Amino acid sequence: MLELLSVRPQEPRGVRLFSLAADQAELDRLGAILANAEPGLAKGHLADLFGVEAIDATRVEVFDLADLSDFGLMNYLIKANGLPEEALEPDRARLEALAGVVLILYPQVFKGESVTLSPVSAVTPIGAWSEEVPDLEFTPLRSQSAVGELLQGSAPAAPTPTPRWVYLMTAAMVLLGCLAIYAALTGGA
Questions:
Q1: Is the C or the N end of the chain the one with fewer CB within 10 Å?
Q2: What are the boundaries of each domain within the chain?
Q3: What residues pair up with 124 in beta bridges, in sequence order?
Q4: Residues 139, 132, 49, 41, Cα dihedral to 10°
């Protein structure tokens, strides 16, 4: 389970959701920051919003909930972010009542550093949820071709060169084809 304001190294995958009291100018400013972001921790306006030294802006999403239209925030968190519906269900009413601008912090937003968030008053913490990671099951292959081991460092055998007679036959066939076309065009004379 993720803690909302306390980020730990090696925590499970998931998202942290915040609402932001922002006008269109602020939303445009944040959009420009995210559009020009480079991977890695950086200082600046976005980090200041969360009261931290630096943040990886490539791991942050900011948008107006009106942009989701009828799709809704619940569907977005479940279908686009892999959050289990069961984890979100207790917060459904609160999530569906949200309006305005939201910020989503994705895993590795602080590059594995321990950080305590101290958001400014315009940023309101909403919730943090772990992503559902499916159990993987590998069924053994039944084919005999799957039995054995690959030899390390051995390259596949080089293909055998094409014999010269193949090239000669191809050239003869092309020449006969050209003669047949010529004969057909000139009336056989």
A1: C
A2: 6-130
A3: 19
A4: -10
Give me the pLDDT at residue 180, please. Answer: 92
In terms of Cβ atoms closer than 10 Å to its own Cβ (0-12, 13-18, 19+), residue 83 is buried
Report pLDDT digits (tens) over 127-163. 888 876 666 677 777 777 777 776 666 677 788 889 9
> Which token pair is 85?
């519906």
Q: pLDDT by residue (tens digit) across 18-70?
A: 999 988 999 999 989 889 888 888 888 988 999 998 888 898 999 999 998 88
| Tokens standing for residue 95 | 């999530």
Are the beta carbons of 116 and 5 closer than 8 angstroms? Answer: yes
How many C-beta atoms lie closer than 10 Å to residue 41's C-beta? 16
